[in-house]
Design a protein that fits this description.
By secondary structure, the protein is α/β, with parallel strands linked by helices. The chain has 16 helices and 13 strands. The structure holds uracil (URA). This is Pyrimidine-nucleoside phosphorylase.
Length: 434
């Protein structure tokens, strides 16, 4: 088999066999196929696409490049969730303890943030002492003991994805539906859960800019998971505004705690109970998702999900007192209020711009090596559709460096529009793909 022939076939839109997929993925992962040949194939895939069978073969070959997590020694049903990345998206922080409090085990490998979207690990590390690097044995023990753990991805989980993603990043081939589907699903499948729920975002700050693209991606990922025997569902959610009111690591954890206390912003609560309802239904614990949702609300309101979060923090060496005393979180030295300069309504919120503003404040990274300021970020006081009077605070910027705050403020201003007419509030959950 020759890489030249595989590239040539795909260039002409001919379907690749499972053996051909395995050949190039394995060869590239092991360093036997050059970057320029892999890059040419990625571009051919970008233009010609992949069928569901080809994407499934690509996913399997990527999984085979490394180790997989075997959760069979953990009793019960194991659930996992993935979001394609949103600004202010702290849903995992609510969902993981909520599901665990309802008997669904969550053995979760999460990522760090890069660019304008935040990562769950960075958020959790804003809790003083919290450790995300557990040994495989510690991880399994914790999952068995308390039913939930959230850790960083082990280095050897789908190593082919790391190499392929790095190449996609520099060859303008990231935004290909089959390549994203294989990348996400290889990591989810290697992590070993029985049920996988996906939150596929669309809108200005999302990978998928339009709803049809998001639906296409969701369909593909759901089908790949089902082919591998997993229970799957994906929801399509609009990213027209940040999720909740907080963007930035410690600020987002505090907001997630509010939801776990039965309070907090409605959109974050809604998304969390909706996803939980679907997961319980897929797990066969309720006859329909609506019943699961009602149970989820109960577990938020009666404190059982919050108690599970306390156990999770304590197990991963964090200070569990943070859930009763917010002053234990890192606080920025500086705050700046962004005030409305006229009466009106908050129109569009450019979520990508808001994510970049938070990044400028120190809440995110522009490159992998950048250090995060856990205290930095933005709290919104108004969201799309809200009435605003001149002089009212629209948002508060938090940070530790005045220059960064100036830069973040300029980005934030450009991301918000004030208008004279009230804009219809976009619905958050658009559709369910099963
Ligand atoms: N997230 C991933 O893990 N992979 C992609 O290709 C895109 C988003």
């Amino acid at each position: 088999m020759r890489m030249y022939d595989i590239i040539n076939k795909k260039k002409h839109g001919i379907v690749l066999t499972q053996e051909e997929m395995a050949f190039w993925v394995q060869g590239f992962a092991e360093g036997n196929i050059s970057d320029y040949q892999a890059a040419a194939l990625l571009m051919a895939i970008y233009f010609q696409g992949l069928s569901i069978d080809e994407t499934s073969s690509l996913t399997s070959s990527m999984i085979d490049s490394g180790e997989t997590i075997d959760l069979s020694r953990v009793p019960g049903i194991k659930g996992d969730k993935h979001s394609t990345g949103g600004v202010g998206d702290k849903t995992t922080l609510v969902l993981a303890p909520l599901l665990a409090s309802m008997g669904i085990t969550v053995a979760k490998m999460s990522g760090r943030g890069l660019g304008h979207t935040g990562g769950t690990l960075d958020k959790l590390e804003s809790i003083p002492g919290f450790q995300v690097d557990l040994s495989p044995e510690e991880f399994m023990k914790q999952v068995e003991n308390i039913g939930v753990a959230i850790v960083g991805q082990t280095r050897n989980l789908v190593p082919a994805d790391k190499k392929i993603y790095a190449l996609r990043d520099v060859t303008a081939t990231v935004d290909s539906v089959p390549l994203i589907a294989a990348s996400v699903m290889s990591k989810k499948l290697a992590a070993g859960a029985d049920i996988i729920v996906l939150d596929v975002k669309f809108g200005s700050g999302a990978f998928m800019k339009t709803r049809p693209e998001a639906e296409n991606l969701a369909r593909m990922m759901v089908d790949i998971g089902k082919k591998k025997g997993k229970k799957m569902a994906a929801i399509l959610t609009g990213m027209e505004t940040p999720l909740g009111y907080a963007v930035g690591n410690a600020l987002e954890v505090k907001e997630a705690i509010h939801v776990l206390q039965g309070e907090g912003p409605q959109d974050l609560r809604e998304l969390s109970v909706y996803l939980t309802g679907i997961t319980l239904w897929l797990a066969g614990k309720v006859s329909d998702a609506a019943k699961g949702r009602v149970q989820a609300e109960k577990h938020l309101d009666d404190g059982s999900a919050l108690e599970k979060f306390r156990e999770l923090i304590a197990a991963q060496h964090g200070n569990p007192q943070v859930i009763y005393d917010e002053s234990l979180f890192p606080e920025g030295k500086f705050r700046y209020s962004l005030l409305a300069d006229q009466d009106g309504y908050l129109g569009s919120m450019d979520t990508e711009g808001i994510g970049l503003a938070a990044m400028k404040l120190g809440a995110g990274r522009s490159k992998k090596e950048d250090l995060i300021d856990p205290a930095a970020g933005i709290i919104f006081y108004k969201k799309t559709g809200d009435r605003i009077r001149k002089g009212e605070t629209i948002a508060m910027l938090h940070g530790n460096n005045e220059e960064q705050i100036d830069e973040g403020r300029d980005f934030l201003k450009k991301s918000l529009t004030l208008q004279q007419e009230a804009k219809a509030i976009p619905s958050l959950i658009d559709d369910l793909v099963i």
